[in-house]
């Protein structure tokens, strides 16, 4: 019994670490598109996947660490905001359903598409010292969140089709 619990925790920790690495790479380097207020990336799709697959504490850690490391490597001033924002975004999703693309996670895509741009817009306004800093950050982050939502939906549907969640969790 003790071995099963330890084995399951190890599997979850390793999966979270792998997601953190993938989030870092897809945020900082792969399909990384610079914009005037930072960059647009596809790392959030993997934040959403991690949060749909892993229990909340592991998903929050994977999201915050992965995105935080990406900011540390590219735009370090954004790291504190990112640690909080990505942790909150991960909490919108659930891993409790049988599939990745369940109703709750579809609703979470909309919540993330509103919260993330608003939070980054607010962070930019604080960093710039003026409320006018909100909109230049909001618009590209909204586009990024929407694009990441589409990528997540396609990936989640494909992974649900092959039964990844059931396979990973049944071992």
UniProtKB/TrEMBL annotation:
<keyword id="KW-1133">Transmembrane helix</keyword>
<dbReference type="Pfam" id="PF07155">
    <property type="entry name" value="ECF-ribofla_trS"/>
</dbReference>
<dbReference type="GO" id="GO:0016020">
    <property type="term" value="C:membrane"/>
</dbReference>
<keyword id="KW-0812">Transmembrane</keyword>
<feature type="transmembrane region" description="Helical">
    <location>
        <begin position="106"/>
        <end position="126"/>
    </location>
</feature>
<dbReference type="InterPro" id="IPR009825">
    <property type="entry name" value="ECF_substrate-spec-like"/>
</dbReference>
<feature type="transmembrane region" description="Helical">
    <location>
        <begin position="12"/>
        <end position="33"/>
    </location>
</feature>
<protein>
    <submittedName>
        <fullName>TIGR04002 family protein</fullName>
    </submittedName>
</protein>
<feature type="transmembrane region" description="Helical">
    <location>
        <begin position="138"/>
        <end position="159"/>
    </location>
</feature>
<feature type="transmembrane region" description="Helical">
    <location>
        <begin position="45"/>
        <end position="69"/>
    </location>
</feature>
<dbReference type="InterPro" id="IPR023812">
    <property type="entry name" value="CHP04002"/>
</dbReference>
<feature type="transmembrane region" description="Helical">
    <location>
        <begin position="75"/>
        <end position="94"/>
    </location>
</feature>
<keyword id="KW-0472">Membrane</keyword>
